[in-house]
Amino acid sequence: MDNRLQPLAEEKVFKDPVHKYIYVQDRTIWNLINTKEFQRLRRIRQLGTSYLTFHGAEHSRFSHSLGVYEITRKIISQFERGGYEDWPREEKLVTLCAALLHDVGHGPFSHSIEEVFDTHHEDWTCRILLEDTEINRVLREVDPSFPEQVAAVIRKTYEKPIVISLVSSQMDADRMDYLLRDAYFTGVNYGTFDLERILRVLRPHKGRIVVKESGMHAVEDYLMSRYQMYWQIYFHPVTRSSEIILRQILRRAKELHMNGYAFGWMIEPIRRLISGTIDVESYLALDEATMQTAFTIWQSEQDALLADLCRRFMDRKLYKYVTMDDADESLWASIREQFTAIGLNPDYHLEVDFPFDLAYAVYRSGTRDAKKNDKPPILVLDRDGDVSEISKKSDIIRSITGTHRGKYHLYYPYEPLLESAGKLSPDLRKLFELE
Amino acid sequence: MDNRLQPLAEEKVFKDPVHKYIYVQDRTIWNLINTKEFQRLRRIRQLGTSYLTFHGAEHSRFSHSLGVYEITRKIISQFERGGYEDWPREEKLVTLCAALLHDVGHGPFSHSIEEVFDTHHEDWTCRILLEDTEINRVLREVDPSFPEQVAAVIRKTYEKPIVISLVSSQMDADRMDYLLRDAYFTGVNYGTFDLERILRVLRPHKGRIVVKESGMHAVEDYLMSRYQMYWQIYFHPVTRSSEIILRQILRRAKELHMNGYAFGWMIEPIRRLISGTIDVESYLALDEATMQTAFTIWQSEQDALLADLCRRFMDRKLYKYVTMDDADESLWASIREQFTAIGLNPDYHLEVDFPFDLAYAVYRSGTRDAKKNDKPPILVLDRDGDVSEISKKSDIIRSITGTHRGKYHLYYPYEPLLESAGKLSPDLRKLFELE
Amino acid sequence: MDNRLQPLAEEKVFKDPVHKYIYVQDRTIWNLINTKEFQRLRRIRQLGTSYLTFHGAEHSRFSHSLGVYEITRKIISQFERGGYEDWPREEKLVTLCAALLHDVGHGPFSHSIEEVFDTHHEDWTCRILLEDTEINRVLREVDPSFPEQVAAVIRKTYEKPIVISLVSSQMDADRMDYLLRDAYFTGVNYGTFDLERILRVLRPHKGRIVVKESGMHAVEDYLMSRYQMYWQIYFHPVTRSSEIILRQILRRAKELHMNGYAFGWMIEPIRRLISGTIDVESYLALDEATMQTAFTIWQSEQDALLADLCRRFMDRKLYKYVTMDDADESLWASIREQFTAIGLNPDYHLEVDFPFDLAYAVYRSGTRDAKKNDKPPILVLDRDGDVSEISKKSDIIRSITGTHRGKYHLYYPYEPLLESAGKLSPDLRKLFELE
Amino acid sequence: MDNRLQPLAEEKVFKDPVHKYIYVQDRTIWNLINTKEFQRLRRIRQLGTSYLTFHGAEHSRFSHSLGVYEITRKIISQFERGGYEDWPREEKLVTLCAALLHDVGHGPFSHSIEEVFDTHHEDWTCRILLEDTEINRVLREVDPSFPEQVAAVIRKTYEKPIVISLVSSQMDADRMDYLLRDAYFTGVNYGTFDLERILRVLRPHKGRIVVKESGMHAVEDYLMSRYQMYWQIYFHPVTRSSEIILRQILRRAKELHMNGYAFGWMIEPIRRLISGTIDVESYLALDEATMQTAFTIWQSEQDALLADLCRRFMDRKLYKYVTMDDADESLWASIREQFTAIGLNPDYHLEVDFPFDLAYAVYRSGTRDAKKNDKPPILVLDRDGDVSEISKKSDIIRSITGTHRGKYHLYYPYEPLLESAGKLSPDLRKLFELE
């Protein structure tokens, strides 16, 4: 490794509302932050469409990425001060780079795009690390194999699991930063927990990261924060409504493209996205600005459905929702039929959402939602040196493990239903609160 | 006035990080917030390009506008509880609407656009209130004359000066909110002051708003916050550098347009903006998303200067700066000459900035920078009922009144100068820190 | 009711770190705060000996009492704005006075004194309200029956249960203030929850106070705060150790008095306390200053045990503790025997503590610890108007209801044991960590 | 130096509301904190009688002393990381001990006692370090000369001025902690400034501590905090009133003692205090608990003046005050005469206070109030390596340097004047607001 490992002549700092300051000592980290691919994260919001519910939530993935880096830096710095044998010091820069870059492959409104176009941001992250980018150039300056090493941490194939778990586990720097940050910017105080104390009770132990038992209540508090943030912020039904509209815009555009529709307005990166031919260069040209610009202009598209969905998204005329305990197939068929009868398109004007289902996956591994559950559990180290999974030790954590709620939300456009209310059955008029 | 003056059946709240909650009781306020013109403020950052210096500063004019409304609501509510005779209760809704809407005419990166295209956001605000918009329709539902009444407050021609001064004075709801909000989102604590105490010492008095003398220290603290925010945040040289790049992009686009240049890519609202033919509809289609999209795509424009400026802005490759005490004309001429000799364009590649000049204008009226100084001074009401201008009472306030610093910053592109350093005089090499 | 019900000419405020400001509008409240009995609360710490563990916890019952008053004032003010029929407006002043005065009967280190001398602070509160005190005079100025009305709220015999439940229930103003306040002054952030939101979802409903279902997560968060505060702060083993020492000082003094011991130093109120002959006047002369002064001087008492205990308390040379899973009677007998053999007094030098037992009682009524469980449960009002007990609705709350842990702590003086370690059995040497 | 310099096996932490955590790594520091002389600081409030104005201000000198230690530890730790040549690393423990212990000589209500009995807390600090105390024993374990070294820092005779200035200068760890701490506990936000930033711009430079010019605004903010805290908190007229009463209790007790008065109740340390014969042992037995106990019991003393003053202090029946611009000698004589005529004692019942005078001394050396002004000024290091005194660089700092206000407050007992109002001249009735 060459002189790129040399520290900066003078430590650089970023003012950060969550961590007060973010400290950069490595030249490589500094150079990575200044690449255009990393700067692009400034134009992608951390919480996607949540700003339509919580107007403070305009913070970017740029600020979150710096925060993940900073927490990782603090954990490593404490491991080094503690002198723990388990900690592979030479891996420090790999870990810091992976922490900083783990989200660099996120696109605008990432979850919606991933769902509609079946892409994965981890894949894009790795491509951005490995293909011809400024980031790749900065990493290669450390060592030709360095981009691959960092990518291995992202892909979870890196040889030392302890490095992976710092960046990706049930209590990793990523989660710790986003809970604190999302709480700060939305203005709720559910997400606050004692970061400093948690950092103090983390230990490397037999190749894994564990929590000293004396810090278990701090971990309980952290997991409760996470639980509350999911229910109060991430699953907020108004946010879900905006995500539904957004997904339908993307689905509609894709459908129109496949049907040979001639868009009145288009730009190349979006054309490639919806046609499934996107490459790294075009992907990096996508951000929330370009997507929103498309939606703004598409309000004048000839396709009335696309134009209406775009207007709804940009002007925040979202779908309304009602809460239901249950629904049988016959009700379902009846709704679709009546919607069609009054000129609505049930594929676009109706959506059922089970946000609570995701909570199940939050703290339990080995379940059906495997993709989201591949993160190792939180381990507690007791005074006798024994390690156990935390939910075995805490009633509270057990109570939020595997939770699953049966209620679901039904989303629909209120105004056209109200206009045609007379043509709907009384049941539906009641269900959709039209009278 | 009709039933639009009726309160909402149930108070609505917005979660806000600065004021905890924002309370909406009037149907008109609720409906205004839901107009598309007001929702558009979500896509315009409160602090323009400051997010390039302070990554937390992504908050929108939408959140600020709600904050100004909320502070105004609190002041009025306290005036009403206090039962002060000076307070014209029937003006409550006018004031609240003006507070909410005072920034609705802001465009993307407003100050830069105003400077290059000589527009004024107050004018746009009034046009949006009075022309054919959703906002106009909501206001007219109160009373046909209502849009004009609200516009009069914005224009400062409203008959009751006390109403105007709530929305626009040296210590108005606008300033109180933005100091607190900008401090919160940048993460600095310079901007914090005791809002609750200030609200408690404000009084209507003989048609003006005054501060009880017992609250003078709180006002000192507020003005010091303002002073510090100007120096630390608003005038930060990195932010100034990004504003310079931004202005030059706009200037270049305008110049190219005037010279008949055929843009490789253009959209209608921007074409109208740079050609000076913009109307309300196109203006409302402008936001930071559309501007940034243009800058993204213009990186491939044939005009190398425009393309370079756009790349600098989007990738945050800003101009460097040096601080100078003074400069004589000969130095100036020499720089321009040598810049031209190495292929730089001194009209675009060189800019001098006196950010400190503006501080002069902050708290003193009747000076040359009249446009920015038309806000009434802060008045103190002493125990004997006498009113005086606050800087007469406070050494501290006097010390920041009329401040003017002589130093200025010189901005320039570092990399091309470094490349051609050999062709520059030793003086310039030293000045631009090229060796 | 006479003119004492008139509001103050000008609202008074107290600066408070938890609520920012505390607002006093009623003359009666103002006068009550200025009585000497209420001022005495300044000399009694809210958290007893917790300051020996958390050095910030020096806040007094005076500040807590103001806080309870303020939260009650806010709840009532919101009930009045909401115009709920269930709310008996004429009871406002009774409720506010009860909120302000509910702790006025607390003595110094209240829980220890109550345990050793079998007194109850509620009884003292009522006596202070009803006997010849400044407080009684202020209350009688409202109406001769007023002291009795306020006392009835304290005793929970007041005819309107809704008034009682504001001051004393599972989610009363008392608990809300102390969680926030104790968290603030200790510096932990476990105790923070969204007070403003909880206030907004409280409703009077059929003579009780209920929570709207939409606010249930805020209540979960509040109960988790409470749970964490109990485990992290109130049950902290170092605090328990200091309480043990304190109780033993009091027990020893009482024992000595009963045995006719002639104290080298004594003052009248303490003599009356330990002899069981205390009256209101003497009780009011007791505060933490007088108790600590006694302990300071008693370090020179002839009784070596009392002197040693006092020294331990004042110099914070507390007992050490070890955690045990279980203990059989034979171990117990063996410890006592060996302690006696080396000159220790097992009645004073050994104490077992089950702090966790109390957590059981926190949220469940109808259990054996009836005295501590007489507070009504938290009720949730759903959208259909049905009311249910909250733990039926929330997994999380169920998980902390009725919790009971088996471990206990054994407290003992380390130094004398270490000195005589050679005379102890190996088992005990290991148990007491002497080797 | 022996093994006492070894660090603790495991870092200890204190939870602190201001600094979140206070970290102890040195065994000596840990042992000093556990001495009885240091524990005694728990019974002495940091802000004396200010709790009578700001009820949150109950924090002790114990917590402040830990805070000063922690800030010093952070500064040193940064100097060591920065690798500055000026910093004498071997002095680390001396500095930390001096920081921790600098206030250990404070007595209860220190400023009042110093004024009445002409003692100085620095002298007591040195005696406690050097005479036969637990602190002395812990220090001697490091090295026999160690107590003397630490005392030299306190006395400002230590050979390295840089060590002294960390503990005692215009911007030392002491001031930084108390501003933040007093602001936190009173609940005002005047005292907040960006500690982390200030720590980052401090540098050792040619044997002194300087501030990098880039941090000057942070220093301005710190000095403004200090200014505001003086005016809003430390000089608050209600606090001054309580200090006046307190001083008069002490003066009266001293006077009575000198006149051979037989106190109905007395304890040895207080007897020694008022007779001027106090030694270290008795001094250490004094704390706010013993003083308040005396005042409580003295309410029944035969001397009516002493009893009345004690009642005023304990029940917070303080003197009222009026603000005056000026007073001539004849007014003065007239007040004294009329006071005497109605049975008041002008030596005790009347006091004039110029709190603003002290502000003069705050930032300027070389003035008449030399004793309070012996702290070196704040030095700014500019980019050229030049050092200048900060008020030369900042208009704001100049505006608060040497400030002096002419108004004064007149304190007097309201009730007896009101009772005898008829016997006073109209002028006095007006002056004392009796009508």
Automatic annotation (TrEMBL), chains A, B, C, D:
<dbReference type="InterPro" id="IPR050135">
    <property type="entry name" value="dGTPase-like"/>
</dbReference>
<dbReference type="Pfam" id="PF19276">
    <property type="entry name" value="HD_assoc_2"/>
</dbReference>
<dbReference type="Pfam" id="PF01966">
    <property type="entry name" value="HD"/>
</dbReference>
<feature type="domain" description="HD">
    <location>
        <begin position="61"/>
        <end position="179"/>
    </location>
</feature>
<dbReference type="InterPro" id="IPR006674">
    <property type="entry name" value="HD_domain"/>
</dbReference>
<dbReference type="InterPro" id="IPR045509">
    <property type="entry name" value="HD_assoc_2"/>
</dbReference>
<dbReference type="InterPro" id="IPR003607">
    <property type="entry name" value="HD/PDEase_dom"/>
</dbReference>
<protein>
    <submittedName>
        <fullName>HD domain-containing protein</fullName>
    </submittedName>
</protein>
